[in-house]
Amino acid sequence: MRSPLRQLVGRTALAVVGATIPTMLLAQGTPDARVGLKAGWFDAGQAAWNMKLVSTTPPSDPFLSKVAPDARLKNSDLAFSGTRVFQGNYSGWQVWDIANPRKPKLAAAVVCPGSQSDVTVYGNLLFVSAEAVAGRVDCGLAGVEAEVSKERARGIRIFDISDLKKPRSVKVVQTCRGSHTNTLVTDPNDPDNVYIYVSGSAGVRSNEELDGCSSKSPDVDPNSALFRIEVIKVPVKNPEAAAIVSSPRIFEGLSEAVRHGDAPADRRVRPEGAPERPSVAGRGPTQCHDITTYPAAGVAGGACSGYGILLDIRDIKNPKRLYAAADTNMSAWHSATFSNDGSKVLFSDEWGGGTAPRCRATDKKEWGADAMFVRQGDSLVFQSYFKLPAAQSSQENCVAHNGSLIPVPGREIMVQSWYQGGINVFDWTDPNHAYEIAYFDRGPLDSTKLVSAGHWSAYWYNGYIYGSEIARGLDVLELAPSEFLTQNELDAAKLVQFTYFNPQEQPKLVWPAAFVVARAYTDQIARNSSVQKPWIANVVAQLAAAEKAKGAARASQLTALAAQLDRDAAGNAESARVRALSTVVKGLAK
Nearest CA to 77 among 463, 477, 354, 462? Predict the structure, then answer.
């Protein structure tokens, strides 16, 4: 394999590094069951491995064409609060009651065109991204024809959802480039406010429409709307006072990242005379596509026009760039996911913009994939790629897209969407050897041409996987135990319960001291053939005996087991997990 050129950019330095890049793929069956599935809208063929579809709920009437998919059938991202899931749509948003995940019920459907209507939620407030030039402040359907208009809504819509039957628009915080995506950030030291990081990728609007907007370069106009993100402060009890409080220029000093061009098949279909995207050095990124914050670690990962950027967000109002990574195998950095301890970060690559087939058998496995990095201080060091291992057809838009961690203690397991490549679950605990452990997929929407559909996002929330299907609605899936994931590990994951979840604000996963968590660790330790079988069998037996004991007898047995684990950890092939197991056992002893 040819070593790709990689740029690793710190505050001031630029280094070019070449290395052999490991790419770990795992195909399930020959041929893979995902290949060649029957096309269809609600009757497409399906394939599943180690997970099952619990329910599919089609879009509500305001968002459903009874004849064929149309513009309104374009669901976007998800946010969660209690037993409700909020689903964005290019024409508004829907709310589903998931008290019974097997039978989601419609709680609200609000038509409010704006594109792409990514959603975040906090308490009784819903935040919706608006970017389209036709979006109106009043959510009307007439659009905005005038080139300059105060009726245009481009920025963050804020809704009061205390009464879902009558959601109330309280404000539109207008921004110069609109909001393609938004990230809600909370500060435990500032409970009266929440913050919104706005990633706006549209052109800069006229200064006549919104005062202060300038499309000039910063060296000409220091107040340029380019090369920055926006930070909005929202007083929770007075959201009408929400306003932009800073516009950090996190891209300062970056040149244009060198990226790969088209695949041969796509070069052949480029219209005659159309230029290739330039890959020469020039001005750097002017915006982020998406930002994932991890407040518990004080960092964020920005996917920003050719760069994966590591941010310091300890001062939430003023994020600062720590590092920027670029890779010639990456095209359109899309989103980020941190490991639970914050030591690793995974960036997805939305090569083709999400509307093109990029999982064909002829497409490079390093393109349109996930790139995994480890943190070394404030730097990011590349490890390997992971891509959907099943080839998809030319009628299926497919590329790496949104996902989240599944809270299995001791492992980094992620669920991810791949548009019409479906949903898969993979382990990237070792970022050099990621492997797939489960999947769900449907056939293309149309067998004769590419019609955009598939899973925009897939997230774990309180025991289930929820997938936002662009054309087909809301999917709910459940993982099944397998040789890669035991029932104990699944049950331990289900102990982590969120009261709300905005996937782009990654929460720190914490497990209670529970016997099933301890058994999850013993299952993981037992997978390692280097661990002596008699030793792990003895640990499992002691744990089972202690679980049956009561009171002081249980505490005494657990204390003795913890002491043994502490002694044995140093010489064990699974020393880190043995220490984690000891911590759980000590917690149980209390």
Answer: 354
Residue numbers of the domain that contains 524: 515-589
Amino acid letter for position 511:
W
Residue 272 lies in a domain: no
Spatial distance between the Cα atoms of 315 and 573, rounded to a whole number of angstroms: 40
pLDDT, one tens digit per residue, over 144-154 is 999 999 999 99
Is residue 391 assigned to a domain? yes
Q: Cite the DSSP H helix spans in 314-464.
A: none
Local confidence band at 23 (pLDDT 50, 70, 90 cut-offs): very low
- Whether residues 467 and 580 share a domain: the answer is no
Give the C-alpha separation, 359 to 552, whole Å.
58
What is the count of structural domains for the chain? 2
Could you read off the pLDDT of 534-553 as tens digits, one per residue?
999 999 999 999 999 999 99
CA atoms of 511 and 462, how far apart (whole Å): 13
Determine contact, residues 580/410, Cβ cutoff 8 Å.
yes
Say what the pLDDT of residue 284 is.
Answer: 84
b/e map 141-167, b = 16+ CB within 10 Å: eeebeeeebeebbbbbbbbbbeeeeeb
| Statement to judge: residues 219 and 364 lie in one domain | yes
End-to-end alpha-carbon separation of the chain, Å?
Answer: 54
Summarised one tens digit per residue, pLDDT across range 241-268 is 999 999 999 998 899 888 887 888 887 5
Query: Does 459 share its domain with 556?
Result: no
Q: Give yes or no: residues 492 and 558 share one domain.
A: no
Provide the 3-class DSSP secondary structure of residue 491. helix
**Residues 12 and 95 placed together within one structural domain of the fold:** yes
pTM of the model: 0.93
Q: Are residues 526 and 479 in the same domain?
A: no
With contact defined as beta carbons under 8 Å apart, do 432 and 418 qualify?
no
On whether residue 509 sits in a domain, the answer given is no
Q: Is the dihedral of CA 164, 167, 172, 173 positive or negative?
A: negative
Q: b/e string for 24-55 if b means 16 or more Cβ within 10 A?
A: beeebeeebbbbebebbbeebebbbbbbebbb
Q: Does 319 fall in a domain?
A: yes
- Answer yes or no: are the C-beta atoms of 365 and 23 closer than 8 Å: yes
Q: How far, CA to CA in Å, does 469 sit from each of 104, 200, 210?
A: 14, 23, 35
SS3 64: coil
Question: Are 334 and 370 in a shared domain?
Answer: yes
| E strands in 123-201 | 125-130, 155-160, 168-174, 181-186, 193-199
Residue 395 sits in a domain whose CATH number is 2.130.10.10
Polymer length in residues for the chain: 590
- Residue 125 and residue 246 in one domain: yes
Q: Where are the alpha helices (DSSP H) in 86-192?
A: none
3-state SS assignment for residue 22: coil
Domain boundary among 437, 471, 501: 501
